[in-house]
């Protein structure tokens, strides 16, 4: 495989909008209200989005990329690695599968690997980084697919949320589950389950306790100081505190912090953190 024939594509829930050194495209999800449609294309003003939604009382929802959006992202690459948000919460994966069918029928010499991350945000970012690493090692297409599949079993996603209102209003968690997150001072800590759904682990009083709890849950999952990716929705200070408690316990951990894109900001809401990490 020649680098110019390869492309990594991911939907915008990965918070990755460009990637240095490897051809990359992001396929945008959309956030939709009765008044406006926000396209999560990396140029979206997420602060404006979050604030507009806070003052908006009508219905808001999201939409995954259509097969034709995915085809646009494939462009005309020969070998495509396509990563999606969990198929258990979004139609993105199914859309990508339809696009793959289409693309491979039209171009029998081309290959698309569609990978269901069973997760989102920073865990997808880790998977994307792994694919890039394997591409740079000049592995064969099938080998990369195999390696990525096994790598993803050794990564996890935890989250801390102050509100689960948008998740509940869009049927991604029950209203009962969401209720606890609405209580003043409570932070819900949870994880992406093995089948790619939201699983609540703990309800913590205050952010400090929640951050400790996250580190404990990372360790429980097998974290021993590998890569960590933290995506935050206007909560840089919590992301930084988490980074320092991780570094204190695991000086070799490689932690990077960045701002969430539109889709993750919509569901994680103000104050939310998503943490992708390697389990061993
Ligand atoms: O297709 C669509 O419209 C997108 C639906 C996405 C629904 C869930 C997004 C969750 C984003 C919230 C915390 C992390 C949850 C991880 C679960 C696997 C972030």
Overall description:
38% of the residues lie in helices and 26% in strands. The protein is built from 10 helices and 13 strands. A 6-stranded mixed β-sheet has the order 10-9-8-13-11-12, with helices on both faces. A 4-stranded parallel β-sheet has the order 2-1-6-7, sandwiched between helices. Strands 4-3-5 form a 3-stranded antiparallel β-sheet, covered by helices on one side. Helix 8 crosses helix 9 (236-249). It is globular and about 55 Å long. 44% of the residues are buried. The mean pLDDT is 96. The structure holds heptadecanoic acid. Residues 29, 62-64, 85-86, 89-92, 119-120, 157, 159, 172, 192, 196, 198, 264, 267-268, 274 line the site of heptadecanoic acid (X90).
Give a concise summary.
The protein is an alpha/beta fold and 280 residues long. Helices cover 38% and strands 26% of the residues.
Present as ligands are: heptadecanoic acid
Helix content: 25-40%
| Spatial arrangement of strands, main beta sheet | 10-9-8-13-11-12
Shape: globular
Mean pLDDT: 96
**In what range is the share of β-strand residues?**
25-35%
Note the run of SSEs as H and E: EEEEHEHEHEHHEHHEEHEHEHE
List the defining traits of the structure above.
binds heptadecanoic acid, alpha/beta, globular, 6-stranded mixed beta sheet
Topology:
Blueprint: E1 6-11, E2 24-27, E3 30-33, E4 37-39, H1 46-54, E5 60-63, H2 67-74, E6 79-84, H3 92-106, E7 111-116, H4 121-136, H5 141-152, E8 155-161, H6 165-169, H7 175-181, E9 186-192, E10 198-205, H8 207-220, E11 227-232, H9 236-249, E12 254-259, H10 262-268, E13 273-278
Parallel strand pairs: 1-2, 1-6, 6-7, 11-12
Antiparallel strand pairs: 3-4, 3-5, 8-9, 8-13, 9-10, 11-13
Helix pairs in contact: 2-3, 4-5, 8-9
The structure holds heptadecanoic acid.
């Amino acid at each position: 495989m020649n680098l110019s024939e390869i492309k990594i594509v991911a939907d915008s829930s990965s918070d990755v909008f460009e990637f240095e050194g490897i051809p990359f495209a992001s396929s945008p999800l959309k956030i939709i209200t009765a008044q406006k449609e926000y396209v999560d294309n990396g140029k979206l003003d997420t602060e404006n989005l979050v604030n507009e939604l806070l003052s908006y009382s009508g219905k808001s929802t999201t939409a995954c990329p259509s097969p034709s959006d995915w085809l646009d992202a494939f462009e005309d690459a020969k070998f495509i690695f396509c990563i999606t948000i969990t198929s258990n919460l979004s139609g993105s994966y199914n859309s990508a599968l339809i696009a793959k069918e289409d693309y491979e029928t039209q171009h029998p010499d081309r290959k698309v690997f569609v990978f269901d991350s069973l997760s989102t945000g920073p865990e997808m970012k880790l998977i994307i980084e792994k694919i890039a690493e394997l591409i740079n090692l000049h592995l064969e297409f099938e080998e990369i697919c195999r390696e990525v599949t096994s790598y993803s079993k050794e990564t996890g996603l935890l989250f801390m949320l102050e509100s689960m209102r948008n998740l509940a209003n869009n049927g991604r968690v029950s209203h009962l589950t969401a209720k606890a997150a609405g209580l003043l001072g409570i932070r819900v800590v949870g994880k992406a389950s093995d089948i790619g759904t939201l699983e609540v682990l703990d309800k913590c009083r205050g952010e400090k306790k929640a951050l400790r709890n996250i580190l404990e849950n990372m360790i429980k999952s097998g974290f021993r100081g590998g890569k960590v990716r933290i995506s935050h929705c206007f909560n840089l200070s919590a992301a930084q505190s988490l980074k320092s408690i991780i570094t204190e316990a695991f000086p070799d951990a490689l932690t990077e912090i960045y701002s969430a894109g539109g889709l993750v900001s919509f569901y994680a809401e103000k104050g939310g953190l998503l943490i992708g990490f390697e389990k061993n």
